[in-house]
User: Which sequence fits this backbone?
DNA sequence: GAAAAAGGGGTATAAAACTTCCCCCTTATT
DNA sequence: AATAAGGGGGAAGTTTTATACCCCTTTTTC
């Protein structure tokens, strides 16, 4: 079996020791460095050019490991990065998979799983693990759909007037015409008129359809940020 | 081991026979139907409610299997779909992963791999296979980046006035201020003023930067379609 | 180095758009 | 029956926009 050099990146001594013990048992794996921060990791990666980097995410800050991975992809593209973390939340996973990582493994994984991850990474045969796959599939579908459908919606929203945008925000929050009128301190008739204009621009016959296409594409957050 | 019902969908007799042979060897797997088209597949899925559907992609047309999978997700959401195809091109894979499939397996896979795919799908533990993972990682990063950058640019473009949009279109075509003034039959000073306003909204110091971010995200076509 | 283009700031005015309100009405929804 | 949703016409006042002119500096181009 091919000789592999490994860099361990984790800010906790105990975690580094556990990994060192696991790797130490295998003669074809050798640790060429240990880093306690993202910064150190980037420097050591350039210096040692390891085959594999085992990278924790949360160090100096919540995403230090992801940023380090991203920098290493640029400065030391030959090193394969395995994210080895306790975090299995969507944010961590999606951020990680936006950089070119080989694998994403939970720290509680068995010795065998960690070694398998290293071997797979080295031979470019890392699958995406089941617990990641389901989340990634969903998110992938969402962003792909977003990309495909945004063009039309974009054109419509570009033509909305400032107060129409504000009313649209309120509609997305589920407010009725009456509530929106109260909120904006204007007559109900005014709101009715403007919603009518919004529907025309979207070419829809009722507000439900408009809200649906906005929710379907997760555009609410985006619309909510529009400020005139 | 739990009893699993399986639906085979493929327009080629020989392929269906091979799968039937593989499945027939295992007592806990039973074939409850065979379909030769996407349409048949949807009907049989509703009728038989199979645990697993082995689905070919290219049947009536190039993407019949993907469409069928999408419909089955809606009408028979309990059935797990395994795409089993000869196509490993990006289009097929990305389309497949936009619908909720359990796995994507190449037809030349060994008997063992196919059975493993079925077992994993049944127990909700399908990883994304290495040959798919690398492509999916790349595409995921691309569309995620698109979505992130789009949000900011979107907010800016939503605040542009009609004539600012027109001038932006001209700028993207590489026209100078003088040319745009001539094109719109207005004074040069007017255009200078409006471009100044555009730069402020984009928070950029020159038009090159604005054009660059528009081109970087392939937004020109989209902006060009905006009509007030 | 001169000329042209790009970019920033101020001011002003007519036209356009927006906001608001009123009236009327029909159709869903409850 | 009552309320909400949706469509259409009209009209007032206000705000923005589009346009133009002035001034200036910096950058690019020839």
Assistant:
């Amino acid at each position: 079996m091919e000789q592999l050099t490994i860099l361990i990146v984790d800010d906790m001594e105990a975690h580094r020791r556990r990994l060192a013990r696991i790797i130490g048992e295998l003669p074809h794996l050798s640790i060429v460095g240990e880093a306690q921060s993202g910064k150190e990791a980037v420097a050591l990666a350039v210096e040692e050019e390891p085959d594999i980097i085992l990278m924790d995410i949360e160090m100096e800050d919540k995403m230090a490991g992801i940023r380090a991975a991203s920098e290493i992809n640029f400065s030391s593209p030959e090193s394969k990065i395995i994210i080895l973390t306790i975090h299995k939340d969507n944010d961590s996973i999606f951020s990680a998979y936006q950089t070119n990582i080989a694998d994403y493994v939970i720290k509680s994984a068995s010795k065998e799983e960690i070694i398998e991850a290293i071997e797979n990474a080295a031979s470019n045969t890392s699958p995406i693990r089941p617990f990641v796959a389901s989340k990634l599939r969903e998110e992938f579908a969402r962003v792909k759909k977003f990309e495909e459908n945004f063009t039309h919606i974009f054109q419509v929203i570009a033509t909305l007037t400032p107060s129409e945008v504000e009313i649209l925000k309120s509609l997305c929050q589920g407010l009725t015409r009456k509530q929106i009128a109260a909120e904006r301190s204007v007559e109900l008739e005014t709101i009715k008129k403007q919603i009518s204009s919004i529907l025309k621009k979207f070419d829809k016959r009722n507000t439900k359809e408009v809200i649906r296409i906005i929710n379907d594409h997760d555009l609410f957050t985006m619309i909510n940020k529009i400020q005139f």
The longest helix of chain B spans residues 130-158. Chain B touches chain A at residues 94, 97-101, 120, 124-130, 133-134, 136-141, 143-147, 150-151, 154-155, 157-160, 165, 221-222, 225-228 (CB under 8 Å). The mean pLDDT of chain B is 94.
